[in-house]
Design brief:
Length: 203
């Protein structure tokens, strides 16, 4: 059982770091190359459903978002399987909500409206709930216990306010979401390292 938890935590750690790298790749052109956010190229199928014209591409950049978001889903599933950092009690259900949020977000690259903003919102809410559950469970210690809450709070503190003020998504700020996700990945990996460390026997 312990070995399984360690493996799941390591998998979560790798996946969340990959998710963060995806955001770094997204943000890099806006931070250092002076890129401007371009208008979406697609059509409204319904008043609330906007579909991109390009549904498949061999360009590597096309797959950054799907891979990054799939990593979020696998990361949440891995934490759910490990029973960390929420424990195996009722609080564990918030990780299921995180999986649902990632599933909604996954549709965003193909159907930006409503799935991209809705997915980001669901991910933020679910990780806030996971973060609160983490603080109550007290399974993760030190800085690690605050990382899920940091992931959840980031869009509400930085991304959504700019969206409301400017009326447009803030791509440079969205890219900075990389750092809370990567911190969560490092926390999961360090927790796995702690569990797999040599036990101290006393006589």
């Amino acid at each position: 059982m312990m070995t399984n938890s360690i493996n799941h935590l390591k998998r979560a750690g790798i996946c969340y770091v990959l998710a963060g790298i995806g955001y770094l790749i997204f943000g890099y052109p806006f931070w250092f190359l002076g890129a401007k956010d371009e208008a979406m190229d697609g059509i409204f199928v319904l008043p609330f459903l906007f579909v991109n014209k390009v549904l498949f591409s061999l360009e590597p950049t096309f797959w950054v978002a799907p891979i990054s978001i799939a990593s979020m889903f696998i990361g949440a599933y891995s934490l759910w399987k490990a029973g960390e950092p929420t424990g195996f009690g009722p609080r564990r259900k918030w990780l299921v909500l995180a999986m649902i949020g990632a599933g909604i977000y996954f549709l965003g690259p193909w159907m930006p409206l409503p799935f991209a903003p809705l997915g980001a919102f669901m991910n933020g809410v679910s990780m806030i709930l996971v973060g609160v559950a983490t603080l109550k469970a007290k399974i993760w210690t030190d800085w690690k216990r605050y990382t899920p809450l940091a992931v959840g709070c980031f869009p509400f503190l930085f991304m959504f306010p700019l969206l409301i003020i400017t009326g447009a998504r803030p791509p440079a700020m969205i890219g900075l979401w990389a750092f809370p996700w990567m911190a969560l990945g490092l926390a999961a990996w360090q927790r796995a390292t702690e569990l797999s460390g040599p036990s101290i026997q006393t006589t």
